[in-house]
């Protein structure tokens, strides 16, 4: 590929084929392109300047981070501990504030106990209600089954008495028929 040079001594890229129309860029457009490229290059240089380029610099950065991270974490823990102790010191600085906090804890404990007792009572009541319902259902079922069995037994007894009566009359008839045959 051949490159052409323009009057400023800068090399340009070869001309591209277009579809029937020729595009030209004005001088001001070329200048703005040049400034944006230089801006991008400078920005890249700035962002890459913080990353070490040599392995020795990279190792140094890793060692530095290995020291700074625990130091920073311990400082945060110390700050949190100091603020917690200061908060407790202001909260419990006088006898009245300590008594106020104790009463607050007592109220909270009483509330928790009452809530627990209500929950136990509700559970016990629900259990007893279910137990009563099941007991009454079983008793009702037993009564129904007893009545049904008694009806069936009564019906069978009635049928047996009826059939035994018929059987007895048949036997008597047969005996009388046999006696009459014997006597003849």
Shape: elongated
Helix fraction, binned, reads over 70%
Point out poorly predicted stretches: none
Question: DSSP strand (E) fraction?
Answer: under 5%
- Report the structural category: mainly alpha
What would you report as the Rg, rounded to the nearest angstrom?
55 Å
Number of strands: 0
Describe this structure in words.
By secondary structure, the chain is mainly alpha-helical. Helix content is 80%, strand content 0%. The chain is elongated, with a radius of gyration of 55 Å. The N and C termini lie far apart (153 Å). The model has no long low-confidence stretch (mean pLDDT 82).
Provide key terms for this protein.
3 helices
Summarize the structure.
The protein is mostly helical and 184 residues long. It has three helices and no strands.
What is this structure's SSE topology?
Layout lengths: L26 H22 L6 H37 L3 H89 L1
